[in-house]
Amino acid sequence: MECFNLLIRSFTENDRLNLQTLYLQVRLSAWPWLDSSAWKPEDFDSTTQDEQIWVAEENGELLGFASVFVADNFLHSLYVAQKHQGKRVGLELLKKVQAEFTASGTLKCLVKNENALEFYLRHDWKIESTGDSVDGEYYLMRYAG
Question: Where does the N-acetyltransferase domain lie (predicted)?
Fold first, then answer.
């Protein structure tokens, strides 16, 4: 089922607590191979600091968000609440981010995050290289639009 009254808008401070919770819940479900014992909702704050945050909302419920380091056209985070995955929320957030890019956009996707990788490949992102991070091997991906 698709979301029909979906609104993509800029983050406001009123969103913070809900997005902190969403961020933690999605990380826990998407990255089960990582040690999550030190993760906390407030990690959202440091992860998105100094980034443009776009929020997906429907009928007052926050369904997901994307955060972008604007200066580098770098999509740092795209998270959708588990119960809303597969309902075009992620795609609408991705479209908004891509529309805001001023040049070719990039992102890093953990190799083990197969669902996210398939999502980006399906939407015209290409693997450019690989790298290693504290969370494991990742693909550097590029969207030329």
Answer: 6-145
Residue 32 maps to a domain: yes
Per-residue pLDDT of the chain (145 residues; tens, 9 = 90+): 455 689 999 999 999 999 999 999 999 999 999 999 999 999 999 999 999 999 999 999 999 999 999 999 999 999 999 999 999 999 999 999 999 999 999 999 999 999 999 999 999 999 999 999 999 999 999 997 7
In a domain, 121, yes or no: no
Q: How many CB atoms lie within 10 A of CB 60?
A: 7
Q: Which of 79, 89, 92 is nearest to 18 (CA)?
A: 79
Helix (H, G, I), strand (E, B) or coil at 3: coil
Examine residue 141 and state whether it is found in any structural domain, yes or no. Answer: no
* CA pair distance 88, 86, nearest whole angstrom: 6
Q: What SS3 class is residue 102?
A: coil
Is the backbone of residue 54 left (phi > 0), alpha (psi -120 to 50) or beta? beta
Contact of 26 with 80, CB cutoff 8 Å: yes
